Amino acid sequence: MSKRVGKRLIIPIFIPHQGCPHRCIFCQQKTIANLSENLSAPDDIRNTIELAISSKRFVNQKGKEVAFYGGTFTSLPAAFMIRMLGSVRPYVEKGIIQSIRLSTRPDSLSEDKLDILETFGVSTVELGVQSMNDKVLRLSNRGHTSRDTIHAVNSLKERGLRVGIQLMPGLPGDSQEVFMDTVDRVVGLNPDMARLYPTLVIKGTKLAQWYKEGKYTPMRIKDTVNLCKEACMRLEASGIPVIRIGLMSSPSLLRKGEIIAGPWHPSLGFLVRSAIHLERVRPYLPPMGEAKHIILRAPKGEIPLIMGYKRSGMRHIETITGAMIKDIVPDDSIPSGEVAFKIL
Ligand code: SF4
User: Fold this and answer.
1) If you take atom 6 of ligand 1, which residue's CA is the nearest one?
2) Which of 5, 29, 237, 241 could form a disulfide with 70 if both were Cys (CB 3.0 to 4.6 A apart)?
């Protein structure tokens, strides 16, 4: 199934664990991606693209992209990579698909594999960086170091490829300080985009075993929202857009018992965006005790962020101002990121 991301239409091709040199302790791609969507044979790839092309919304969408997710693409044998990318090439040549993206590990980008990506016109490579702390990487059995990440980002940039960085707060050995240090180091690498996937304990993983044995404690949802908020603000202040926060709710992930523990929330990204917005508008709110009842005015598109998930944003504003919000009125004359209030 194709997905709209920003102004692009993504046609995802899932290759769960293919090319992975081993299993990282937190990972269960077959649950995350939906086994039924494991599509790596050229015919499967063509069928998936054809199905997307036949959908109504495909016609009017400008940026159409095929994305290989869920494994270590560049650790696959060269012939296999060429077969998969070769199935997409005719669509790129005809202008039906505008770009190709894929995800891989930072330690699997040899020059010959990079040559293949360049030859087939891959435009974006997303690196599963997870952390820039070598102890965290070691505990997670990642099998690579932060040096590999630095090298990978530089190699991709030298080839003119766009670079995405995926980070996982809350891995074993991680903490708020350690993760924000990771974020600072990622800012220093200046990737084109980032994704935040807070660590979940998924059935069938080594992490699930550690959790059951009391060796691992996952982050709480409240701390996760705060940490992702700080990370997002720091990355985006440096011009690095955060394009995803939290795993997609695939049917297999949501199946009862698959997520054993951890900060799962179906709208984690919205919780974080709302928390960021509330911090931005805070200076425009009345100080504590100044008013008993207020009416807020805000740009129409920002009202959901102010209201928050199940009105939690409104409750937060009422707590920090001591004023009950009687109404929120849409007003596009208010600058973005601000609110105005009227005391009743
Ligand atoms: S995290 Fe990436 S490299 Fe590790 S097992 Fe999962 S898909 Fe493979």
Assistant:
1) 27
2) 29
